[in-house]
Amino acid sequence: MSTEGFAAMLIAMTLVLQKLVSSLDADEECAEILLQAWYLNNGALAGTRSAVLHALHLIEELGPALGLHVNLAKCEMFSRRGNTSFTPEVRCSLLPNLYIIGAPIGYTDKIVLLWSSE
Question: What is the DSSP code (8-state) at residue 41?
Fold first, then answer.
């Protein structure tokens, strides 16, 4: 694939994911989603069990029209309390001491400019 073709694919994937993320953000039952992290065809959601389960159902419902299909066999759920998985296909791992940190990475002047403008 040419550099231009790869760039076009990245832009198209970004636009498709933005539609999906906007749908999740607009849904009241997803209000308890505390974290959405997306990169190309991978996504991570963190929040209450019910909010994440609802978001998964929305992604399964809305995704195919956008060309996105969830592969449950490659999904993994991490739980601090040992709750069972959403579906038999999704692997569940108990992580009682799970903590997540997120940070923007880049040139300091650009990060400050981006964060101060919001």
Answer: T
Task: Answer yes or no: pTM beyond 0.85.
Answer: no
49-66 vs 3-26: helix crossing angle, rounded to 10: 130
For residue 50, the Cα-to-chain-centroid distance in whole angstroms is 15
Residue carrying structure tokens 């065809």: 41
Structure tokens at 13: 């994937």
3-state SS, residue 1: coil
Q: What are 83-96's pLDDT values in tens digits?
A: 666 778 888 888 87
Q: Side chain identity at 59, as an amino acid letter?
A: I
For residue 71, the 8-state DSSP code is -
Rounded CA gap, 42 and 32, in Å? 20
Contacts of 6 (CB under 8 A, 6+ apart): none
